[in-house]
Amino acid sequence: MKKYFLALAIMVTATGMKAAGLTASYLRCEYKENPVTDVPAPRLSWELSSNQSDQLQTAYQIIVASSQNALNESKADLWNSGKTASRATYQVEYAGKPLKSGQRCYWKVRSWDKNGVAGPWSQVARWEMGLLDKSEWKAEWIGLDLDHLGKGKVYHLPPAPYLRKKVQVKPAIKRATLHVTALGLYEFSINGKKIGDAFLTPGWTDYDKRVYYQTYDVTSNLKSGANALAAQLSYGWYAGYLGYSLLVQNPVVRAFYGKVPLLKAQLEISYQDGTSETLVTDQSWKASQGALLESDLLNGETYDARLEEKGWNTAGFDDQKWKPAQVFPDKPERKLQVYPGPPVRITQTIAVKTTNRRPDGSYIMDMGQNFAGIVRLKVKGAAGDTIQLRFGEKLHPDGRLMTENLRMARATDTYILKGDPNGEIWEPKFTFHGFQFVQINGLRQAPDSQTLTGLVIGSDTPKVGTFETDNAMVNQLYSNIDWTQRANYIDIPTDCPQRDERIGWTGDAQVYVKSATFNRDVASFFTKWVVDLNDGQRENGAYPLYAPAPDLRKTDTFSPGWMEAGIICPYQIYRAYGDTRMISQGWPYMTAFMDFLEKRSNGAYVFKENAFADIDPKGGFGDWLSFGKKTPPDLLASFYYAYCADLMSEMAEATGNIKGKQHFTATAAKVRKAVLAHYTDSEGRFKCDQKAYGDGAGYVDGALGFTGHTQTAYANAIYMNIIDPAEMKKSGDRLAELLRENGGKLATGFLGAKPLLPALSATGYSDMAYKLFLSKEFPSWGFEVENGSTTIWERWDSFTKEDGFKYNAAMNSFSHYAFGAVCEWMFGNAAGIKATRPGFAEFDIRPEIAPDGMGREGISRLAASLRTMNGMIVSEWAKTQNGLTMKVVVPVNTKARIYIPRFSEGQIFVNSREINQSKQVKILGKEQGYTLVEVGSGTYEFIAPH
Ligand code: RAM
């Protein structure tokens, strides 16, 4: 935090010396810096800073040119917005000349402040257009069918195809652009050098509907004369194993979209002399197999270095023995689009912490952190020596690697040495594992610190949040949340990175999405995944259980609590980033879903008991992994119905759709009325008709029985505003009562854990929320930390001292983010950062101060920050001997209401001045023990004495 203030101070002085007014930086297009995009009217954004407080933008001017040279207004041949009166600094659509394929656009921006003073022009940024029309693709799908190979007893793992072509390039290249994609996964190289730094390209989509491609500037990779274009392919999500299909003995267990991985690449070269040419994948390419004998996302890679063909991807290689590549037909309806998300990359390397020798002569190496990724192996040995790497999240008490929870995911990498006397370095290309421990077999000598290096992979979502306190458990918990997010945001939001699952479960995604926005900038990540969700929408209008949505198991259809992701995710992205395009593009899907709900309710606007008895499991997953009597899934489905109608009404308004707003406001009211009529008793307690569920067979944990009077019911009812505002407090009391009756312990599952603390805080039980949050007793977040976890567990009891890993064989991940959704409360309540307008254009800082008297088990100092579309927000509080201090940073162009908790009626100071005397803040009054002030941008330090 200190560092940030320092940086800010330097920035402020630097700009202060240059010019008054607003300085624009961090220019982005479609949420990315200098991207390639195929969005016809890309959205631009910038961040403002100022050396004055209480500043805002009154106008901006954007200029866009086709060439970079000394960009000024006279050269803005694509767009000059002129001085445009507006507060907008993001989601500003390009509105210049229509853009062509391959068009490079250089742009800059300046802003006028509230006094009408123009700031300096920003630095120049750029974006580039991809191929806008599919007909511009001249390249064919090519590959090599090796599907008949690699059939083992359990797994069918054919070798990875290698493709190459020698091409001649004329001298004096001006610019060379490579567009490349695969059905499967690709790694493309030119003259032996990998192009780009992305991993697992081109990502997972419903390949029948669309496939994404990457575009790279490869001007410096080519030379005049002979060049080698080459690619390695793998099976990936397209042709490899997916999810638990093997485990559940689905008729199809792999190759859900196709059997043969395929490459499509197009290299466009323009020369100084004005000529140009296009080189494409076609039947003239050569194909073979090589050292990569097995390559599968879930099962790992096997690489026999003895089979390497030296120089296979360089121009001098003799490929006479290689076969001609096979050309495969395209599906005309399949779209080819620029990858909209943040690339998956190696984001960090991790050194081995400790190494232990096992009785069988193998070694287990502890990376000290559970993460998703791979390891780089460095070995020396004889040709044919075989090194086997196995991955696990935990060790058994006797020191054995725990792999039972991987289920059918083999998660094994094998490297066979070629015997290079100088040693060999290898890392897999097309797989990843979820692990903290690696067991290595087959070494000749004991490993050293260089033998293995952990390579963390994940969608490279910029870090935007920090959260720090003086409580070590809480700090570790926050670290665990962020690590679990990183381990599971890999192209799509997965449930877990280790076992044979790793699919985009919609329930997990919807409960966690808001939390995710506090840690990382996930705007473009969800831009990508919401398309997957829409592509996966079922014929009846329900969003699927997971997206992308191949048929991994016959009975997988949809479930309340999961299917609402199609509404909740776009909504949360809108709230966090002010994105309305996702709403308009998703609108037809979202309304189809709402129609589905209405039809399902048979016009009753409530889902009565057994309303979803036709799906498997009956009623859907409900409050998955909760304890005790079950909250009726139909009651939760009904709550979600009301909640979705609310969100739809707000999203309709955000997009100027008045009719839509009216319609969904009315729907929400009808649902609320029907829900309360059906599911509450005369005193407003939640209830259900137990008998209707019979013995509960077919329902998740149905044998435990059902009741409406649960923590999960009240927590959700409060969170989703199901109850009349006048009754809200009463529901909070009931929730508190239920917790007390349960020995002060939570009993909530996936759907109940997220709203639990926010609901307590909203109804005057902040202290109780803190008690749950700070508890280390089972079941709690702290319990996991106490047990040495470095990520969030799937179950509260994934491990207990009494029962060990009792769920291993079935389902027991140690990297599952759903319960990490407590993050929403950490930022929104403990630090008190709450957006009151989309994009944090206006927000509240309303921290809830941790209860006193807990000593080291409590919190006496908390510091959180969040970089929003508007810039950095900071909220810090610390208990002092004299009372409380608070520090708040409010970005330029935003407004905040700050709630200053008062311990007593002592005088509050802001920036060393009595608050009544300060011109920087406007006192709005008192509210629930807080003094409420309104401020514009700036840094504010408050002292609130006892
Ligand atoms: C588990 C997944 C996921 C959950 C579903 C219902 O197998 O891991 O977390 O959403 O089941």
Give the gist of this structure.
With 946 residues, this protein is α+β, with helices and mostly antiparallel strands. The strands form nine sheets. Strands 20, 21, 25, 26, 27, 28, 31, 32, 33 and 34 form a ten-stranded mixed β-sheet that branches.
> Given the C-alpha coordinates, what overall shape results?
globular
Would you tell me the structural class of the helices and strands? Answer: alpha+beta
The count of strands amounts to 48
- The CATH class of the largest domain is identified as Mainly Alpha
How many domains is the backbone divided into? 5
Q: Stretches where pLDDT falls below 50 for ≥5 residues? A: 1-19
- Under CATH, the topology of the largest domain can be stated as Glycosyltransferase
Give the overall pLDDT as a whole number: 96
Largest sheet, if any? 10 strands, mixed
Give the SSE map.
Blueprint (H helix, E strand, L loop, with lengths): L1 H17 L4 E7 L6 E2 L5 E7 L9 E7 L13 E2 L3 E2 L6 E2 L10 E9 L12 E5 L11 E3 L17 E9 L3 E11 L1 E6 L2 E2 L15 E8 L7 E10 L1 H4 L22 E10 L4 E5 L5 E4 L2 E5 L3 E5 L18 E2 L1 E3 L6 E4 L5 E8 L2 E4 L5 E17 L6 E7 L1 E2 L5 E2 L9 E5 L7 E3 L6 E9 L10 E8 L5 E5 L2 H17 E2 L1 E2 L12 H14 L3 H13 L29 H13 L3 H20 L32 H22 L3 H22 L31 H9 L8 H14 L8 H13 L3 H9 L6 H6 L36 H8 L2 E3 L6 E4 L15 E8 L2 E10 L2 E8 L4 E7 L7 E2 L2 E2 L7 E6 L2 E6 L2 E8 L1
Parallel strand pairs: 2-9, 15-24, 21-31, 39-43
Antiparallel strand pairs: 1-3, 3-7, 4-5, 4-6, 4-8, 8-9, 10-17, 10-23, 11-16, 11-19, 12-15, 12-17, 13-14, 13-16, 17-18, 19-22, 20-21, 25-34, 26-27, 27-32, 27-33, 27-34, 28-31, 28-33, 29-30, 35-40, 36-37, 38-39, 40-41, 41-42, 42-48, 43-47, 44-45, 44-48, 46-47
Helix pairs in contact: 4-6, 4-15, 5-6, 6-7, 6-8, 7-8, 8-9, 10-11, 10-12, 12-13, 12-15
Bound molecules: alpha-L-rhamnopyranose.
